[in-house]
């Protein structure tokens, strides 16, 4: 039935406005994970060696629920050979500097430990396959987060004991801040594996020119035990 314009009740327009507002809210909340390129690391107190070791452009990752993280990776990963059995990334060496991450609102690591807001270096570590670690993760490759202010020698591969001690400063516990790695997908994108883990894939320059390394980093997901 057609109603003359002057006879349409005001409540009709109010209902339409509410409907559009609800529709917009649903669209925003349904926004999925996203990856965008960003500029240089902007933490004022960052040591000069760290700035020189990382690329000028980084990645901002958002999961659609308000959680964000910003990553800057090494200008070039050194040539290493990791002979540990089952290593997903045999080209990375234990204790090796891989990049920097900033968590504006904090986060939790693969063990569910809280990591406070701030910036951290990321160093690779193959998880020892002993009785304490068997079955913890489908892959033995991890990145350990170290408070940025405590780690400025990017050329040094940190020994395991020292790396664990420094990384534990990020959690305030006796355990390091561990970020799981996974098989890489399409660079500058996020994907979900069959365990529901959300994985960021990035491409990092390798030691040989023109031969970048693809790395898969779990940005959402925790160990089941």
What does this structure look like?
With 225 residues, the chain is of the alpha+beta class. It has one domain (32-220). The protein is built from three helices and twelve strands; from the N terminus they run αβαβββββββαββββ. The radius of gyration is 22 Å and the shape is globular.
Q: What's the SSE pattern?
A: HEHEEEEEEEHEEEE
Q: Domains counted in the coordinates: how many?
A: 1
Instruction: State the secondary-structure class.
Output: alpha+beta
Oligomer: single chain
Stretches where pLDDT falls below 50 for ≥5 residues?
Answer: 1-5, 12-30, 131-135
Number of discrete helical segments: 3
The proportion of strand residues reads: 25-35%
Mean pLDDT over all positions:
84
Between the first and last Cα atoms, what is the distance in angstroms?
63 Å
Instruction: Based on Cα principal axes, name the global outline.
Output: globular
What's the total number of strands? 12
Residues in helix, %: 10-25%
Radius of gyration: 22 Å
Write out the strand line-up for the largest beta sheet, numbering strands in chain order.
1-2-3-4-7-8-9-12-11-10
Mind summarizing the main beta sheet?
10 strands, antiparallel
């Amino acid at each position: 039935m057609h109603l003359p314009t002057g006879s349409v009740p005001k409540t009709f327009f109010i209902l339409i406005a509410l409907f559009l507002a609800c529709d917009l809210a649903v669209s925003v909340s349904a926004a999925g994970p996203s990856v965008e390129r960003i500029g240089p690391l902007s933490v004022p107190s960052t040591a000069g060696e760290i700035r020189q070791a990382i690329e000028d452009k980084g990645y901002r990752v958002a999961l659609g629920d308000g959680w964000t993280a910003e990553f800057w990776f090494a200008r070039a990963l050194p040539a290493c050979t990791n002979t540990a059995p089952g290593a997903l990334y045999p080209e990375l060496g234990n204790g090796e500097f891989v990049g920097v991450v900033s968590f504006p609102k904090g986060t939790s690591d693969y063990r569910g430990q809280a990591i406070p807001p701030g910036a951290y270096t990321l160093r690779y570590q193959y998880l020892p396959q002993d009785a304490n670690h068997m079955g913890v993760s489908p892959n033995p490759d991890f990145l350990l987060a170290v408070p940025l202010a405590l780690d400025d020698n990017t050329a040094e591969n940190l020994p395991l004991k020292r790396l664990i001690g420094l990384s534990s400063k990020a959690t305030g516990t006796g355990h390091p801040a561990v970020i799981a790695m996974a098989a890489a997908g399409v660079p500058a994108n996020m994907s979900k594996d069959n365990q529901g883990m959300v994985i960021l894939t990035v491409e990092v320059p390798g030691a040989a020119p023109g031969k970048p390394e693809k790395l898969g980093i779990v940005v959402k997901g925790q160990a089941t035990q």
